[in-house]
Amino acid sequence: MAGISDSPARRIARRFGAAATVSELVAAEGVARNSRRTWELVRFSDSERPIGIQIFGTDPENMARAACKISTLEPDFIDINFGCPARKVVERNGGSSILRDLKLLEKIVSGVVNAVKIPVTVKTRSGWDSTSLVYVQAGKIVEDCGAAAIAFHPRTKEQYFGGAADWTQIARLKENLRIPVIGNGDINSPIDAKRMLDETGCDAVMIGRGSMGNPWIFQRARHYIATAELLPEPTWRQKIEMALEHLDMMIAYYGMPGGVFRMRSQFCHYLKRIPGGAPIRESINRLLAVDDIQALLRQYILDLESRQVDADIRIPA
After folding, report:
1. Options 1.10.20, 1.10.1200, 2.40.160, 3.40.720; which CATH number does 236-306 get?
2. Residues annotated catalytic, as ranges
């Protein structure tokens, strides 16, 4: 979720019913060097709480020092990432690469837990590849080291985000651990969220990619789990108007032109599956002035209305 789960997105997620938020991936080395860019990633407001700051790295001492420094900002928890499959993270032996060295994983978790007074959680995957499914063993290590919970994405690093997440692995992990297990992977609707809870027995559901351009999924999932009533999908008008509001928040947070650059990927998700959305997305990527982007999207609304595209048409996530 790098470039996605920043402060504006987290505030929106909380407003729409997310029970907690997690920061973008933060490099422990950057914290140690007092990198300005790294410290920008860990900024948060009280409206994002409960919030965890997510760190990665390969040196146990650096990870512990980074967690200790970050804890002075008083987040609600520290999250250690052993799940990211991105090349730029794995090539630095971070993220899911550590699943190839469970002794190192143990040293990192133990060091971070002992360095801070706030809860520590861990995010992990099934293993490096299909021949090394170590998630139960890794989960037991995480539990024994004193972590408060584990979030589990049941794909290997080699799968990246391909194929289907194997939810039976979440059920197996839950059967083997005493600490809470948070299920993750392929949650694209409220029905998916409830089905994961029912099929795996996990304690909570983490929604990542399914929330991009679709913050409504949090409140819809919570409502469906509580009542079995499925609230309607957002309309195309709601999605465009939310995208405009999100743009305003990005400009307020990052200034210009940074806010516009960072919002471009978000626009792609908000405008997904809306009639005629593809050329609008391409046009936005060529614009820098906020007024021009706002005018383009407002004209897009008028064009849809003139074509008698019903504003109440529900857009699947």
Report:
1. 1.10.1200
2. 84
